[in-house]
Amino acid sequence: MLKVTIDGIETEVAEGTTILQAARQIGGEIVPPAMCYYSSLKNSGGKCRACLVKVAQGSARDPRPMPKLVPSCITGVQDGMVVENITNPQVLEARKGVVEFLLLNHPLDCPICDQAGECDLQNFAYAHGMANTRYEEERRTFEPHEIGDKIKLHMTRCILCYRCTYVADQLTDSRVHGVLNRGDRAEISTYIEKAIDNEFSGNMIDVCPVGALTDKTFRFQSRVWFTKPLDAHRECSKCCGKVVLWTRGEEVLRVTARKDQYGEVKEFICNECRYDHKNLNDWVVEGPRHIERNSVIAQNHYERIDLQKLKLEVERQLRFQQGKRLNESNNIPS
Amino acid sequence: MGKRLLLKDIDVPGINTFEVYRRQGGYASVEKALKTMTPDDVIEEVKKSGLRGRGGAGFPTGMKWSFLDRKSDKPRYLICNADESEPGTFKDRYLMEHIPHSLIEGMIVSSYALGANTSYIYMRGEFRWIFPILEKAIEEARAAGFLGQNILGTGYSLEVYVHPGAGAYICGEETAQIESLEGKRGNPRNKPPFPAVVGLYGCPTVVNNVESIATVPHILNMGGDEYSKIGIGKSTGTKLISASGHINKPGVYEIELGLPVEEFIYSDEYCGGIWKGRKMKAVVAGGSSVPILPADLILKTAAGEPRLMSYESLADGGFQTGTMLGSGGFVVMDETTCIVRNTWSFARFYHHESCGQCSPCREGTGWMEKVLHRLEHGEGRMHDIDLLVNVAKNIEGNTICPLGDAAAWPVAAAIRHFREEFEYHVKYPEKVKDPKHFEKEPFVPERVVAATA
Questions:
Q1: With bands split at pLDDT 50, 70 and 90, how would you rate the model's confidence at A334?
Q2: What pLDDT score was predicted for residue B357?
Q3: Distance from the CA of B101 to the CA of which of B14, B76, B299, B443 falls in 20 to 30 A?
C-alpha cells in the first residue's frame, strides 16, 4: 500500500493507482475535475488537462517536486507523494485557463442543448472558471453531418475528449469512427459518410461530456431537470440490463445507463435496451434514482430527503469553508 | 577555418556515392565498432564525447542511450528523426541530400550500440526527392556488406528502412513520430512512460536527430575524449547552423561550438554581415520555437559578456535576456523587419501544426494567431498585448508535448523585448496597413527618439 497526501489529507492506496483515483477515494472538494478521463474506458485521459495538479513531493525516497503540473488522471501514485490541488493558486489558475480554452470555440448553445443540467463542461466551468469570456474572435464551426438515425452529432460543441472513439474501440470490433484533421479543425467523424450502427453505439451518448453526441429519440423533448429518474432493469441477453428511466408521469422519455457520482458509466447497455423499450411495463422499476443534491436534476424534489445525511453534509461543508477562511486570515493562499 | 567534421568532404565530387565516400574513409567506424568494440564500449565513447542532441533539446545523447531498457527481452529500435520541420532549420536536409552515407554509417554504429536490429529513418514527406537518395545509399551499403544479415561476418544484422511522413510538424516530436510509424495518428503520447522503456510497438526505442547520428562515426574514429576537446564547456564538438534571413551569405555552416556570435554573423567566413548595408534588429537563434532576441542581447549577454554559439552562452539570462541554441536555425532580421508580423507568422505556423489533443494548445494557438492577425492589420487594442502574454503563460507547461511551449515562447519573448512595436501597431493602425510598413522607414522605439532628441 502506498501513502499519498492530497491537499493535506492522507490516504493509502494500492500500487498502480493514479492520483485522481486516490483523490476520488478521499472524496469531496479535493477531487480534481476530469473532462476526458473515463475509468471504464482504457487509454482515456491525459488530453484535456483539466485534472492538472502540482506534485510538491514526488515520493518519500525522492522528495523533489515535479517541475510541471501533471495530469492526475494518468500519473501513478508513489509512496510518500504530496499533491497540491485546491490549496495551490498555480493549479487553480491553470484550471481557470483550461476552462477558458475549452470554452473558446464552444458555442453558447446551453439554451437549446439537451445536455444542459447534466453537462460536465457546465459543472466544470461553474466550479473553476471565470464569469466572462475574453475571446472576441470568430469561433470555428463545422457543417452538420449525419452519423446515424439514433445519435445526433453537433461537432461545434465537441471538446475532443476522444471518449466516443474509445467506446467504439472497446465495445465493438470494427473501427467505424475516429478523429480527422488536426488542431482546432479536428473532428469526430465516421469513415466516409458511413452511419454508426453497431449494437453498443448508443453508449457514446452517455460518455460524451458535452452536448456533442445526444440521443435523437430524446431531442428537445424535455429539460432533464423536469424528468424523474428511476432505477430499473430487465432481462437482456446482450447487456446487463440495468438502466435509468427518465420519466414524465407514466411516459418514459429516454433510457440511459447508470452513471456513478463522477458521471461515469460502469456497465454499458445495448441499443435495444436504450431505444426499443420505452414502455414502463417493459421494465422492473426499482425505485427513484438517488441524484446528488448539488445537481440541478435533484431540484425536482422527487426523492425523500434523508435529513440526517443532509445535516452531516452541511456541517462538513461549513467546516471546510471555515478552514478556508482561517487560511485567508493567516494570508495562506487557499 | 574552424574544425569541420560532418561537412569536411562536402566539396569532394561524388561524395554522395558509396565509392567516393568509402575512399574518403567512410564506414571505417563500422569496422572499428563491430569488430573491435562491444555495444557498451560505443555507448561509453558517446558519453565521453559529451555529444548533445542536435535536434533542438540538447539532451546528452550518451545519457539518453543509457536509459534504454536492457532488461526487457523485447526487440529494440533506433529511429532517426529526419522530420526536420522547425522553421528556420534546413541542416538535416543538406546532410541527407549531399552526404547520405554519413547518416547510414551513423545508423549502423548507433543501432549496434543500442542492440537494435531494425532501424527506421522517419523523413518528412515534403523531402520527396531525398527518399530515393537515401534508398540508393542503403542499397549501396548493403551491396558492400555493411547492411543486412551478418554484417562483415560479425554476426550483427541490421535492416534500415526509410519511412516518409505526410506533412505534420508534430511528427517531429518523438512520441508522435513513434505513433506515426505505427500507422496511427501522429498524436504525441504522455510521458512518462518514456520511449526508452515503452516506445515503438511498446518496445524500448531511442529517437535521435540526423545530425546526432551522423556525428557518432566521427566520435568513434577520433575517440570520445578527443571529440570532447572541441567546443567549449558542456557544449562539445561541432554543430551545423542553418543561417538564413537578411544576411549576405545564407546557408549551412559547420561551426565549432563556442564561436562568438558576432564573428558568426559578421565574418566573411560565415554569414558575411547584414545585407544591403543595413543594421541588425533581431535574431532567432535556434528555430522559431526559441525566444527572439534584439540585436544588442544576441551579441552580448545582459552582463556585457560577448555571447558565444553554445548551449550555455545562448541560454545565459534565462528567457528574460537569453534564448536557446535549439536546432541551430539561425534567422537574422534587419531593421526593416516588423516583429509583430514575424510573430504572427510563427503563430500561424503553430496553429496550423497543433495536433488538437490537449485544450491549451488546440485552442490557445488559434487564439494567439487571431489576436496577432488583428494587431498586425491595425485592428488591435492595447489590452490585446497583455492578453497575449497571459494566454502564452496559460499554455506553457500545461500541454502534453513541447509544441505548446514552442508556440507560447516566441509570443512572450517578442512582447517582452519589443513591446513598443506592438503598442505602435495599436496606436497608429493606419501606418501599419501597408504590409511593408517598416521597409521605407525602420521602426525606432520612442525612448531612442527621446534620448537622441
A1: very low
A2: 93
A3: B76
Q: Quick one: pLDDT at residue A331?
A: 46
Residue of chain A with shortest Cα separation from B192: A75
Tell me if A20 sits within 8 A of B373, measured CB to CB: no
Number of domains composing chain A: 3
pLDDT tens-digit series, residues A129-172? 888 889 999 999 998 888 878 889 999 999 999 999 898 888 87
Do A137 and B371 count as a contact with CB atoms less than 8 A apart? yes
Using CA coordinates, name the residue in chain A closest to B349.
Answer: A183
Structural domain harbouring B27: 18-229
Contact B356 A52 (CB under 8 A): no
Asked, for residue A78, whether it belongs to a domain, the answer is yes
pLDDT tens for each residue of A205-239: 999 999 999 999 999 999 999 999 999 999 999 99
**Which residues of chain B does A159 touch, with a Cβ-Cβ cutoff of 8 Å?**
359
A61 touching chain B per CB within 8 A: no
- Which residues of chain B have a CB within 8 Å of the CB of A100? 394
Query: Residue B249: pLDDT band by 50, 70, 90 thresholds?
Result: very high
Q: Which of B170, B398, B400 sits opposite A97 (nearest CB)?
A: B398
A and B: number of Cβ contacts within 8 A: 93
Tell me the chain A residues in contact with residue B395 when contact means C-beta distances shorter than 8 Å: 97
Averaged pLDDT, A99-121: 93
The minimum CA-CA distance between B216 and chain A, rounded to whole Å, is 32
- Minimal Cα–Cα distance from B44 to chain A, Å? 27
Q: What is the ipTM of this complex?
A: 0.89
Distance separating alpha carbons of residues B37 and B61, to the nearest angstrom? 19
Residues B106 and B138 in one domain: yes
Which letter, b or e, does each residue of A97-108 get, where b requires 16 or more Cβ atoms within 10 Å of its Cβ? bbbbbbbbbbee
Question: Do residues A239 and A323 both lie within one domain?
Answer: yes
Angle, helices B359-376 vs B382-395, to 10°: value is 160
Do residues B273 and B300 touch, judged by C-beta distance below 8 A?
Answer: no
The residues of B whose Cβ lies within 8 A of any Cβ of A are 168, 170, 185, 190, 351-360, 362-367, 370-371, 374, 387, 394-395, 397-400
Among all residues of chain A, which has the CA nearest to that of B396?
A: A68
Tell me: do B169 and B217 sit in the same domain. Answer: yes
| A186 Cβ under 8 Å from any chain B Cβ | yes
Question: End of a domain among B334, B359, B378?
Answer: B334
Whether A98 is covered by a domain: the verdict is no
Shared-domain flag, residues A116 and A164: yes
**Boundary of a domain, candidates B204, B229, B254:** B229
Distance CA A200, CA A272 (A): 9
Answer yes or no: is pLDDT of B221 > 50: yes
Query: Does A16 contact chain B (CB < 8 Å)?
Result: no
A79: Cα within 13 Å, side-chain hemisphere:
6
Assess contact for A289 and A229: CB atoms under 8 A.
yes
Inter-chain touch A71–B190, beta carbons under 8 Å: yes
Is the minimum CB–CB distance between A68 and chain B shorter than 8 Å?
Answer: yes
**Preferred mutation among B198, B357, B386, B389 to probe A, highest tally of A CBs within 10 A:** B357
Residue A193 confidence class, pLDDT cut points 50, 70, 90: low
CA-CA distance, B296 to A160, in Å (whole number)? 44
- CA B223/CA B210 separation, integer angstroms: 20
